[in-house]
Each structure stands twice: as C-alpha cells, then as structure tokens.
Write a structure and sequence with these properties.
Elements lengths: L1 H11 L4 E5 L5 H9 L4 E4 L2 H10 L5 E4 L8 H4 L5 E5 L2 H13 L4 E7 L12 H9 L9 E8 L7 H17 L8 E7 L6 H6 L4 E4 L1 H4 L6
Parallel strand pairs: 1-2, 1-8, 2-3, 3-4, 4-5, 5-6, 6-7
Bound molecules: pyridoxal-5'-phosphate.
C-alpha cells in the first residue's frame, strides 16, 4: 500500500492534497495507510466515521465527503476537519449552530452538481451563485466556506469529464469576487480514483481517492 500511496503523491505534486477515502474499510486497513503517511481520511457516512474516529489516532483529519443529513451534524461537529458536501442553506445554518455549541469554526466546501447523472447531490451552478452572492454569511460566524467540491459523471468519455471539471474551475475562479471574511475560493475538491489525473490538470487542490489505494470495495 505504501508504494501505491507514494506513487499517487508523486503524481499529485506538492500542491494537491490526498484524501484517502476509507469508507467500508476497517480500522486495521486504515492504519496501513496511516503508517504510510496519510493523515487525511474521507468517509461518506456519519455512522461509519464515528467509530473510526474513536478507534484511530487523534491526529487524523476526518473529511465528510458524502451527503450529510441535518440531524447528523451534531455527531461530527466536535471533530470533523472539513465537510465537502454542503448543499443547502439549511445545512449551513445547522453546521454553524453545532460549531458554536462546540466553540469551533467548521470548514466546509459547497458541493456543486456537475455530473449528468440525476442521482448525485449538490447545488446547481445557479443555486451556488445565489448562495455565494447572498447576505447570509455574516450570520454564520462559526463556519468557513473554503471552496467547492464536485463529482464528474461516471463515464469513459474523458473529454466529458474534463469539460465538467473545467467548468467547475471556471465557476470557482469567477466567484473569487464573492469572497468575504468566511467565504474563500481556495480549495477545489475534485478527482477520484478513475479521474484524478484529469482533475489535477484542470486545477484540483484536493483529490478523494479510495479504491486506487485500498482496492475494490465490498459492500454488504
Ligand atoms: C467513494 C467516494 C470517493 C472515492 O471513490 P474511488 O473511486 O474509490 O476513488 C470520492 N468521493 C466521494 C464523494 C465518494 O463517495
């Protein structure tokens, strides 16, 4: 596993952060990636992240990358490092409230729906533009938006994937003008095992890689 991680890190270069997506893998497998130097791990479910947070070293930075229900925010608010999947104002309000209760500032990304598939979560570009241009941000002092996240269509069409990432990067660049105290366009979370080289070429700052590190997932 160390060889694979080292190889991916070399491909990413110094400016792109590797998030090792450990969903479905048990703590002992995650520890192999930890021993190989990984400190950023991504999980898509709160109920799976909690026991791993309890069991594993406390210097791990936990990234919530999957759809987050409002009623689950309270469980991760004490420790989560970055929430990649924020896709509503209601969720922002809840994260702000729970962060305040924990005397923290929680870092978030807005998830944008960039794929053709219907099933994926995320804001449309129009919705994200409206949110970023709105005046809600002063009322959310316990959170920071650091950038955007997107998942490309699951397809073999490399050009389509590239277009989707490129459009997201353009939107990201254009919305630097919306920056304020707690809204920054610094991080662009795009790229998974199958498409991270394209994502990096198109300006990703964080890739979320699971199966290329840990092998094929077994779902029960
Ligand atoms: C599972 C998952 C990944 C990683 O997928 P791989 O193809 O295994 O690299 C990345 N992002 C999200 C949101 C995921 O749920």
């Amino acid at each position: 596993m160390k060889n694979t991680i080292d190889k991916i890190k070399r491909e990413l270069g110094e400016h792109v952060r590797l998030i090792a997506v450990s969903k479905t893998y048990p703590p002992e497998v995650i520890m192999q990636a930890y021993e190989a130097g990984c400190r950023d791990f991504g999980e898509n479910k709160v109920q799976e992240m909690l026991p791993k947070y309890e069991a594993l070293p406390k210097d791990i930075r936990w990234h919530l990358i999957g759809h987050l229900q409002r009623n689950k925010v309270k469980y991760i608010a004490p420790f989560v490092h970055l929430i990649h999947s924020v896709d509503s104002e209601a969720l922002l309000q809840e994260i702000n409230k729970r962060a305040a209760q924990n005397q923290r500032v929680i870092d978030c990304l807005l998830q944008i729906h960039i794929a053709q598939e219907e099933s994926k979560y995320g804001l449309s570009y129009e919705e994200a533009h409206a949110l970023l241009s709105s005046s809600i941000w002063e009322g959310l002092p316990h959170l920071r938006v650091l950038g955007l996240m997107g998942m490309a269509t699951f397809t073999d069409d490399q050009e389509q994937i590239r277009r989707e990432f490129r459009t997201l990067k353009q939107f990201f660049d254009e919305h630097k003008s919306c920056e304020r105290e707690n809204v920054k366009m610094q991080e662009l979370s795009m790229g998974m095992s199958g498409d991270y080289p394209i994502a990096v070429e198109e300006g990703s700052t964080m890739v979320r890689i699971g199966s290329a590190i840990f092998g094929k997932r077994q779902y029960n």
